[in-house]
Each structure stands twice: as C-alpha cells, then as structure tokens.
Amino acid sequence: MPVANTEERLLALLATLEECQAILADRANTETARLLSLAILELRMELHKVTDSELKALCDMIVSDEPLQEPAGRQLPPYLRLIK
To answer: In sequence order, what are the residues at sequence separation of 6 or more whose Cβ sits closer than 8 angstroms to the Cβ of residue 67?
Structure first.
C-alpha cells in the first residue's frame, strides 16, 4: 500500500475517531471518551512520527515548575515546542 494512501486513510480514521469522541463527550460518557482520546493521541503520534521519549520530554516540560526551556541536548521537533 503506498505511503500517501496509508496516510490519507489514517487521517480519515482520525477524523472519524474525533467525531466519535465528541459524541461520547456530549452524551456524558466521559470514561469512554477518555479512552478514545488515548487512541487519537497514539494515531497522531504515529502520523507525525513522535516518539514516546519526545512525548515524555514534552510532558516533563509541562509539569515542571521551572521556566519552559528545552534542556541542552534534548531538542524537540518544532511541532512539540510549547508557545507561551
């Protein structure tokens, strides 16, 4: 299967999952909506080729009390940089 076709299919799947998540959230089915949000995150990470370590670095920056600066030697991709 060509890469472009695979990416298009994954983007279509992502749109469908996001619609389902919105419906679940509107119907106060929050636990299921949260589980679906994890699947959406995983799919987005796959599409953008974000590694687990990059996601962890971003989460660490978010929860730290220090100013949001990238540690030396740990350069995050532009789509993971935080903007204040």
So the answer is: none
